[in-house]
Amino acid sequence: MEITNVMEYEAIAKQKLPKMVYDYYASGAEDQWTLQENRNAFSRILFRPRILIDVSKIDMSTTVLGFKISMPIMIAPTAMQKMAHPEGEYATARAASAAGTIMTLSSWATSSVEEVASTGPGIRFFQLYVNKDRNVVAQLVRRAERAGFKAIALTVDTPRLGRREADIKNRFTLPPFLTLKNFEGLDLGKMDETNDSGLASYVAGQIDRSLSWKDVKWLQTITKLPILVKGVLTAEDARLAIQAGAAGIIVSNHGARQLDYVPATIMALEEVVKAAQGQVPVFLDGGVRRGTDVFKALALGASGIFIGRPVVFSLASEGEAGVRKVLQMLRDEFELTMALSGCRSLKEITRDHIVTEWDHPRPLPPLPSARL
């Protein structure tokens, strides 16, 4: 059966993957309300398409931190991709490069920064978790820099791991034939089996709960790479991120895997964009499955979006070819949405091209008076 949209890969991945692995990729925190909401919220934004505009030529290209990419659709960091497919992050890196877009490599990847760099040219960002041992952090950042990575995406929403009940039930742990490659030489590459989630125990042992804004400043003293702060959901934190020297903001709720009952990222986006006042670009991840979703995010002021789960599900289904297809389908759908909305370039996508639930409600016509 031919795959015609991004969502269809999830069912195939569910069939192919061991339950522990599928559940790790698919699940969210606690009641998974935010997991559902990340998707559902997009359906509460409708289009106001403009007609009779010459859309024979459409340009989807853009620049992110000065790097030219083919479209505003990029790859979010997702951990342990070799659980999905033997080629893991290698395949994802090649697919991103072929599509002319950016891949973000997870700190907890099953391939190292050097290995991913060896796949060939491409613009790549490195997602960073701040370890309790700052020497480990400095070493990782330097390795990413040396390997040609162009930015650091600092995850700031994980002082502790969210409660992911599927991982607790499954006693999730990294399969024994895999390691967290970036930490291998530091004896931090293995995950112990525990009586709950092995990842939660690993995080409790390794990740610094005392992380604060001063660490964002500290990071700038050890690297010249631009720092994107990933995990911002409020105007207050957007302003603090800019004050702390962030080069950009990623509106993210960690794929709804951290604090449940935070809003969908598409709902939090506009507040963050307004607070940023154009000083830094604002990006979105969470729930993007259609080209229409990409357009809605850009109409609300995002400079681009990142996709996570569609990458691991397509990787599990078809390896590199699957990831390429996901990027191509989203690109094609986004181009069609632009054409049907009357937009020929990203700068033509405006807030007026959409209407949301929270826009001033159109007054309802008066009800006919009841007859007595």
From TrEMBL:
GO biological process, one term: oxidative photosynthetic carbon pathway
Binding residues for FMN: 77-79, 106, 127, 155, 230, 252, 285-289, 308-309
SUPFAM superfamilies, alphabetized: FMN-linked oxidoreductases
Pathway membership: Photosynthesis; photorespiration; glycine from 2-phosphoglycolate: step 2/3
Needed cofactors: FMN
Family from the record: Belongs to the FMN-dependent alpha-hydroxy acid dehydrogenase family.
Record protein name field: (S)-2-hydroxy-acid oxidase
Organism: Nelumbo nucifera (Sacred lotus)
Taxonomic classification: Eukaryota, Viridiplantae, Streptophyta, Embryophyta, Tracheophyta
